[in-house]
Design goal:
Elements lengths: L1 E8 L5 H12 L3 E6 L7 E6 L2 H13 L7 E8 L3 H5 L6 E3 L2 E4 L24 E4 L12 H11 L7 E5 L5 H8 L4 E6 L2 H13 L6 E5 L10 E7 L2 H6 L1 H6 L1 E13 L3 H8 L3 E9 L2 E8 L2
Parallel strand pairs: 6-7, 8-9, 8-11, 9-10, 11-12
Antiparallel strand pairs: 1-3, 1-4, 2-3, 5-6, 12-14, 13-14
Helix pairs in contact: 4-5
């Protein structure tokens, strides 16, 4: 199956501007970004849910200010396994007491200095195994790490949760392993939900987490005590009302996926109905923990 993609030659685009570029692409059904180099990428291959979304993204890049140096080229990648190959070198990472690891780098209780077959990270309290695929959420992006860190600061024992834009299911699975009683994971991308269901089963939390293909803007669900939404600044601001409806009385909403330039826009969008209880930042990416007004 071909993946509609847009090849972007960055031509020295500054790091701060790259964050804005990610946010812009994410407004057009972006699935994932493949980089030519993990340390100093110069070429991105951005994968989209549809060809129309890809073409709209290309137009948006050309029309937006600050991206004049970028050269774009549409492509169709004939490789169902591109994400697995691209992310094969991703290691296990620790966020607080949570480790997010691919199957080939799972932590073990103890390792020796000459071990090559297991992660050198000591066994943590919580291990979340994620198989990289077309859904976001391996835990390596700053916004995902911020959400995982903030989830650990909440008492999730016995709580219900909705994970909006679940991607690989990493946040939903983490919540289940931190004690949540029931988690609904939703995403508009069927491929992401399929990957999430595989990860949910592999982590042994199928009795706690249900994943569904669903548009949160049209969701008709009972509110949950906790809602996570790792989206984009534009989506969060545009759909603050719809996200708010998913949160129960005095419930908690954790939002991420917005950069420093979008922070005030997101804060203003939720201000009428939510109060910020905690915030976190990493490399100019931000996340808020917000409590619904009584």
């Amino acid at each position: 199956m071909a993946s509609p993609a847009l090849i972007l030659r960055l031509n020295g685009l500054p790091v701060a501007a790259r964050d804005r570029l990610v946010a812009l692409l994410a407004d057009h059904a972006l699935v994932a970004i493949q980089e030519d180099d993990l340390v100093a990428p110069q070429i991105w291959t951005a994968h989209f849910a549809t060809s129309d979304a890809r073409d709209a993204a290309a137009t948006a890049v050309h029309d937006a200010g600050g991206f004049e140096a970028i050269a774009t080229q549409p492509a169709d990648v004939e490789d169902d396994d591109w994400a697995r190959r691209t992310q094969a070198d991703l290691p296990a990472i620790r966020i607080g007491r949570v480790i997010v690891a691919p199957p080939w780098d799972l932590p073990v209780p103890s390792v020796t200095s000459d071990s090559h077959s297991a992660s050198r990270i000591p066994h943590p309290d919580v291990v979340v195994m994620i198989e990289p695929s077309r859904g976001f959420g391996t835990g390596h992006h700053q916004s995902t790490r911020l959400c995982i860190a903030l989830l650990q600061n909440r008492n999730l024992a016995g709580q219900t949760m909705i994970d909006v834009g679940t991607g690989s299911g990493v946040l939903a699975i983490t919540a289940a392993k931190l004690g949540a009683a029931y988690v609904i994971a939703i995403d508009v991308d069927p491929d992401a939900v399929e990957n999430a269901r595989e990860n949910i089963a592999a982590n042994g939390v199928s009795d706690v987490v249900d994943a569904h293909v669903e548009d949160f803007t049209a969701a008709n669900r009972s509110p949950a005590a906790v809602v996570t939404a790792n989206l984009t600044g534009t989506l969060l601001s545009r759909h603050a009302t719809e996200l708010g409806r998913l949160v129960g009385p005095s419930g908690t909403l954790i939002v991420s996926g917005f950069n420093v330039e979008e922070r005030q826009m997101v804060e203003d969008a939720f201000a009428p109905t939510f109060a910020i209880a905690e915030s976190a930042e990493e490399d100019d990416w931000w996340a808020f923990v917000m409590i619904a007004n009584s």
